[in-house]
Every structure is written in structure tokens, then in C-alpha cells.
Amino acid sequence: MMRGIRGATTVKENNEQEMIDCTEILLKEMIEQNHLQPEDVCSVFISVTNDIDAAFPARALRQLPGWEYVPVMCMSEIPVPGSLAQCIRVMMHVNTTAAQQEVQHIYLEEAVKLRPDLQKPSKTIS
User: So which domain of life are we looking at (predicted)?
Assistant: First the structure.
């Protein structure tokens, strides 16, 4: 079965290294939480809001060992008034046996506001 895995994060400024670093953190979390191998991934789409253009965030994926052959494409997000600024969004299309409700969508930094319904409650230590 092919499933989509969503993720998003934000950056604090339009800076090449910050864009790459934040995207890498997001991608690694998506990969870890969903137990992915490069061979499982059909394609990756990465969009950015129009206020960040210092780098192609796909470079973050290209830096991960074994991921150099995964098709990836960057694009601009629709500039909807009032939408979340300085945001990088990821859509991975993966082959998996996981049920749709088992897929772990990852939202970091200010992007947690995009899908509060998917946020896991914090664990409390007693």
C-alpha cells in the first residue's frame, strides 16, 4: 500500500543553513517515527512559503546516506493571506504495510499549529 506521510517545520529566518538544518531534523524524525528505508519511499515533495528562498530544502535529504536516489522536488506554497510564515512542508509517498491511522505525521516548531489534532500528549513523569 502507498501512503502519504506529512511533516512541517518553521525557520526563524531566511538563512540557507537554518533551512537545511531544520529540514534535516524534520526528515530524520519522519524517517525514524515511520521506520522508513530509502527503498520504501516513492517520492518526496517539499514546499516552502514565499518568505524563505535562501536554499532548496531538498539538499537536506540528499545529505542523508542512502537517500541520493529518492526522487525529490521543491516548490512554492500557495501564499494564502494569514497562513503560517517561514514554513517548510514535506509530503513523502511511501510503500508501507502500516494502516493509515498508524502513520506518524510530524510537525515541529511553529508548524504544530497546522495540525493540533495530530499532536501526541506529553508524557508526564511521576
Answer: Bacteria
The dihedral built from the CA positions of residue 111, 113, 118 and 120, taken in this order, carries a sign that is positive
Domain 2-118: give its CATH superfamily. RutC-like (3.30.1330.40)
Q: What share of the chain is helix, strand, coil (3-state, %, to 5)?
A: 30, 25, 45
Catalytic residue at 77? yes
Which one of the listed residues 77, 87, 102, 110 is annotated catalytic? 77
Tens digit of pLDDT for each residue in 60-88? 999 999 999 999 999 999 999 999 999 99
